[in-house]
Automatic annotation (TrEMBL), chain A:
Gene Ontology CC annotations of this record: cytoplasm; nucleolus
Family: Belongs to the class I-like SAM-binding methyltransferase superfamily. BUD23/WBSCR22 family.
CDD domains assigned: AdoMet_MTases
Subcellular localization: Cytoplasm; Nucleus
The protein's name in its UniProt record: S-adenosyl-L-methionine-dependent methyltransferase
Residues in 18S rRNA (guanine(1575)-N(7))-methyltransferase Bud23 C-terminal domain copies: 200-295
MF term (GO), any: rRNA (guanine) methyltransferase activity
Keyword hit for Methyltransferase: yes
Record key words, sorted: Cytoplasm, Methyltransferase, Nucleus, S-adenosyl-L-methionine, Transferase
Organism of this sequence: Naematelia encephala
Coiled-coil features, chain-numbered ranges: none
Automatic annotation (TrEMBL), chain B:
Recorded family membership: Belongs to the TRM112 family.
Gene3D superfamilies: 2.20.25.10
Organism: Naematelia encephala
Domain of life, per lineage: Eukaryota
InterPro entries: Trm112 (IPR039127), Trm112-like (IPR005651)
Identification of the protein by name: Trm112p-domain-containing protein
TM spans (from-to): none
Cited Pfam families: Trm112p
GO BP of this protein: rRNA (guanine-N7)-methylation; tRNA methylation
Length: 298, 124
């Protein structure tokens, strides 16, 4: 997967050519539309009412178009002037702002009925100038956003984190700002279709909507919860194994195998198991020949 | 494309600018009227969020005097239509928005206001 946020700051990366390329690419268009629709679904707005929404990182208005179709009134903010220019050419309905979301919003408290943001949050995690501090910018962003949202309402962010640390950093910042909610992962077992949504809630939600929504699944896959539980178990086991390994190393130098506590076959099986859980490729199958000595050949 | 509905929600967000930071004052304005389909239900639901005095003042500074001084308790359909015109159809294409508190100027060009702050103005 390409990561434009690692190449250059957004206002520079999305220059004139990239902006028009991005907007005219039909694949990006469909993916953006799908994600926007899903985000709207997660937003759980009251049906058949037009709402006042904020589109964070609206870009050329691909997501705004969907909001228009649904009859919502929206305000879009983006930091890339070229993208906004394309949005103007496309004559989207919403009001557009040239705005750095890391600097916080100036909207009055309780303005918006909801906020969506498609593929934007990961940009906030980069320090593009010496004065940028990602954590401070995240905090500023989430606190001002929290203030400008109505109570109760929701904000849904689709984003591409490059590591689990980033996810933790973002959710922690959101929680500190007073948001409830959490991460929703759609199609967690698919490499391509896997999408992560941060579903944040402001204030007390309707009783039937107070839970974090479930992620979507392909048919025939294990359901999300069990999958997560299994993964957690694996991680725990791996931690224990590592701990045991370390303890073994301390006990005797190099005596791990011949020391007598572990027999070689078990040790090899354990190692192979570990590699498999780590996702290493090409680990040989276990069989009755595993860990046997080769016959002496003449 | 700054509509008054958005302008009525917009305060200055410069650091430590807490007094008189709303509403931003328009100057050197180029106004465009674009007709949009009416959605009076939306306007009616939006009423509690509006700051009426700020809206009326801004509308008058832009030359629209259809709104009454005091917010009517019950809006008639005609009043809602006038409100719709002011909120949704008046677009400021060019000009400046100035904060009365700190004097920061947000320039609007091509219908897009530039809300970027210099580094020392960013709040924390």
């Amino acid at each position: 997967m390409s990561r434009p946020e690692e190449i250059s700051p957004p206002e520079i990366f999305y220059g004139d050519t990239e902006a028009s390329k991005y907007t005219s690419n039909s694949r990006i268009q469909t993916i953006q539309a799908q994600m926007t629709e899903r985000a709207l679904e997660l937003l759980a707005l009251p049906p058949d009412e037009s709402a006042f929404l904020l589109d964070i990182g609206c870009g050329s208005g691909l997501s705004g178009e969907i909001l228009d179709e649904e009859g919502h009134v929206w305000v879009g903010v983006d930091i890339a002037p070229s993208m906004l220019e394309v949005a103007l050419e496309r004559e989207v309905e919403g009001d557009l702002f040239l705005h750095d979301i890391g600097q916080g919003f100036g909207f009055r408290p309780g303005t918006f009925d909801g906020a969506i943001s498609i593929s934007v949050l990961q940009w906030l995690l980069n320090a593009d100038s010496t004065s940028h501090s990602p954590s401070a910018r995240l905090t500023r962003f989430f606190t001002t956003l929290h203030a400008s949202l109505r109570n109760p309402s929701r904000a849904v962010f689709q984003f591409y984190p490059s590591s689990d640390d980033q996810v933790t950093m973002i959710t922690a910042a959101a929680q500190r700002a007073g948001f409830g909610g959490g991460i929703v992962v759609d199609y967690p077992n698919s490499k391509k279709a896997r999408k992560m949504y941060l579903c944040l809630m402001v204030g007390q939600q309707q009783p039937d909507q107070s839970r974090i929504p479930q992620g979507l699944q392909h048919e025939g896959q294990v359901d999300n919860k069990r999958d997560k539980a299994r993964k957690r178990d694996e991680i725990q086991n791996e931690r224990r194994r590592r701990r045991d390994d370390k303890a073994g190393q301390k006990r005797g130098k190099g005596g791990k195998v011949k020391g007598g506590q572990v027999n070689p076959k078990e040790w090899i099986l354990k190692k192979k198991d570990l590699y498999r859980t780590r996702g290493k490729e090409g680990v040989p199958r276990d069989s009755k020949y595993t860990a046997r000595k080769r016959r002496v050949q003449f | 494309m700054v509509r008054l509905i958005t302008h009525n929600m917009l305060a200055c967000h410069v650091r430590n600018c807490n007094k008189d930071n709303f509403p931003l004052i328009f100057s050197e304005v180029e106004l465009v009227i674009r007709e949009t389909p009416e959605n009076l239900d939306f306007i009616r639901r939006f009423l509690p969020k509006l700051d009426w005095t700020a809206l009326v003042d801004t509308a008058r500074s832009l030359g629209d005097t259809t709104l009454p001084d005091e917010q009517p308790v019950e809006m008639t359909d005609d009043q809602l239509r006038a409100l719709h015109h002011v909120l949704m159809e008046m677009h400021v294409e060019e000009g400046n928005m100035t904060c009365r508190g700190c004097g920061h100027v947000y320039p609007i060009s091509n219908g897009i206001p530039n809300m970027l702050l210099a580094e020392h103005e960013v709040g924390r």
